[in-house]
Amino acid sequence: MSESGTTSILSITFPDKLWLGAVGRKYPYYQFIIRSFIPIKQDPFVGNALITISGKNPMSLIDKIKEHPSLKSFFLMEESPTQITINTQTKDNYLLNCIIKNSIIINFPIEITKGIAEFVINGTRDNIDKFIDELNDKGIHVEIKSIGNYTDEKLEQILTSRQYFIYNRAKEEGYYNNPRDLTLTELAEKLDLAKSSLSSMLQRIHNRLLGQQR
């Protein structure tokens, strides 16, 4: 019998050894969007990507990107005062190998802010678990935002009443939309909670949901 698939939303912090991580954190006011990419099997793997950078004078980032040791090639595709589109090939011993090894399907576009990317991925429950574990083993921080789909009846069985309320409120406010309708800080304000408390509570909720699908 074939194993059923599921959709998950993960927040993945790119390491500084990838230019999207290093440059993204150094210049936090720019938004990076991966429009598409294909892996090229080399040693190490190379990601061939089409990326849009938005912000004030994004051309000022070009030299910083080219200086990063992970960059293999660079082509400027489109240019305007507030947005550029580039084609890059990036050496990647981290994400690409884990994606390919675990047969993970990526939904595009991927938004990256301050070096943190929000991935919507598809795969079997087992493969997604392995993908997360392998990224953690490589020292890459992964935060589970959403895993799978549940009926209200099932959620009430899995979660405490407080967790059920928080999870449903987050969904209603659009926190799990892609892209999100509001930030964690904004959701915390609506719920009259500290940001750190809400973050911990959501992580416990996600861990419970994750445990139910193993």
Write the layout of secondary structure elements.
Layout lengths: L4 E9 L5 H8 L4 E10 L5 E9 L7 H6 L3 E9 L3 E9 L3 H7 L3 E9 L2 E9 H13 L4 E6 L4 H7 L2 H12 L11 H8 L3 H18 L2
Sheet with most strands: 8 strands, antiparallel
Range of strand content:
25-35%
Distance between the termini: 16 Å
* Poorly predicted parts: none
* Total number of beta strands: 8
Query: In angstroms, what is the radius of gyration?
Result: 18 Å
Q: How does this model look, in words?
A:
The structure is a single chain. This protein has two domains: 12-146, no CATH class; 150-212. It has an eight-stranded antiparallel β-sheet. The longest helix has 18 residues, at 195-212. Strand 4 and strand 5 (83-91) form a beta hairpin. The chain has 214 residues and is an alpha+beta fold. It has helices spanning 19-26, 62-67, 95-101, 125-137, 152-158, 161-172, 184-191, 195-212, and strands at 5-13, 31-40, 46-54, 71-79, 83-91, 105-113, 116-124, 142-147. The model has no long low-confidence stretch (mean pLDDT 87).
